[in-house]
Amino acid sequence: MQILGIDIGGSGVKGAPVDTARGELAGERFRVPTPRPATVESVVEAVAEVAAQFDGYERVGVTFPGVVVDGVTRTAANIDRSWIDAPAAKLFGERLGKPVTVLNDADAAGAAEVAFGAGRDQSGLIMMVTLGTGIGTALFLDGVLIPNTELGHLEIDGRDAELLASDRIRESEELSWEKWAPRVERYLRHVEMLLAPRLFIIGGGVSKKSEKFFPLLDLRTPIVAATLLNNAGIIGAAAGARQAAAGPGPQDPGAIQVDAAAQGDLA
Length: 267
Prior knowledge:
Blueprint: E1 3-8, E2 12-19, E3 24-25, E4 30-33, H1 40-51, E5 59-64, E6 68-69, E7 72-73, H2 88-96, E8 100-104, H3 105-116, E9 125-131, E10 135-141, E11 144-146, E12 155-156, E13 159-160, H4 162-165, H5 167-172, H6 177-195, E14 199-203, H7 210-213, E15 223-225, H8 232-246, H9 260-263, E16 265-266
Parallel strand pairs: 1-5, 5-8, 9-14, 14-15
Antiparallel strand pairs: 1-2, 2-3, 2-4, 6-7, 8-16, 9-10, 10-11, 12-13
């Protein structure tokens, strides 16, 4: 089965066919800018533009930067508010003419890392943190995803955490690594206190520069950079679509272990 993964990000909508058994892109990635404003109609068309570059796929997985329940997008912190309570799986499915599974973006990226990347074969409580336009989080217990955690919105010193420590804030406030790292540490220490995870996996574009700020962090929890980098969302979206197609029952090797109904699938 050929599956297309599409990742809706703060700056770009990108997609590619995915080999979901190996956790790798099966073709060259195609990207378009995220529309401004990122309304329901404009983003659906951007996703359709990406999908139109490929053929032969049977299902599509799409990531979304917010809470997704039963295919409906419930929050829209970093995207147009028209997405609140939008039937995303239905809208994408009708536009593309294919079955579509919709997942939270950090959940998809984390699931890809747990199945194929830095979190593979790790037991216990693992947390993926994506530092980008906002702060995304994905939580896994013995490899099973606990969806829609959205812990990037924890309150830190009276502020939404992602307004303190996201990579967008680092860039907009022109913070040096030495000034930004303590903010990231403050956030991660708060999460340590609440959850005591066994491992932090740091994703997002800034993970490519982990050597710039990892040495500046003082944490009890081990911390590693994501290995799939900007392809994690695409791979995780496609893997989620594969699971939705398989339905309930034993998982294939490398499959995302999550209740697909919690994410949403248009059959």
